[in-house]
Amino acid sequence: MIAPNHLDQHFTVEEPNKVWVSDITYVATQEGWLYVAVVLDLFSRKVVGLGMGKYLDTDLLVRAVKQALWHRGLKDGLMHHSDRGCQYTSKSFQELACRHNMQLSMSAKGRCYDNAVAESFFHTLKTELTNFYNYRIREEAETSIFEYIEVFYNRQRMHSTIGYVSPVEFEEQWEGRLQDMKAC
Fold first, then answer.
1. Is pTM, for the whole model, over 0.70?
2. Beta carbons within 10 angstroms of residue 109's beta carbon
């Protein structure tokens, strides 16, 4: 089932775990394609879920979303935005979303800008990392991508959208402000 475009290019969110965006791409290796699914928290642009594998299937996406749910927990009213790919419209993904009370949102037909944050992440991943390597095997690419995301992208890479700090630092600043308000 195709969900309406509830996000409608409103890419600014006031707190974590309100809107997650997701997409899937592929990376070349000498062994064949490595498919990569990510879930980003729109609030901080942090990658909160990652799935990689040999097959472009729904399980790839489900693993990424389950990882995000495990790492972040779920807050009532969470919106999950994606394109209209068959993985996102599949019965198994939609059942997962329903079990966790996620509101699904999908880009309008033929409008790549509706999922611009996820598309932009993959552009960054490719221009800063994967385009510079000729990966021999998928496992080599998986390790490289995981390290890029966990060591560099989430913790060190500055983002203009969030005030030229890293996603982790942005969330820590938000938590600090929240604690300060509670202390008053």
1. yes
2. 10
Pairing mode, strands 46-53 and 34-41:
antiparallel
First and final C-alpha spacing in the chain: 47
Name the strand (E) or helix (H) holding 124: helix 116-128
Residue ranges of domains in the chain, CATH in brackets? 19-183 (3.30.420.10)
pLDDT digits (tens, 9 = 90+) for 113-170: 788 888 999 999 999 999 999 999 999 999 999 999 999 999 999 999 999 999 999 9
Among 41, 21, 2, which residue's Cα sits nearest to residue 113?
21
Strand partners, 22: 39
Close Cβ partners of 171 (under 8 Å, ≥ 6 residues apart): 16, 43, 44, 46
Strand partners, 103: 79
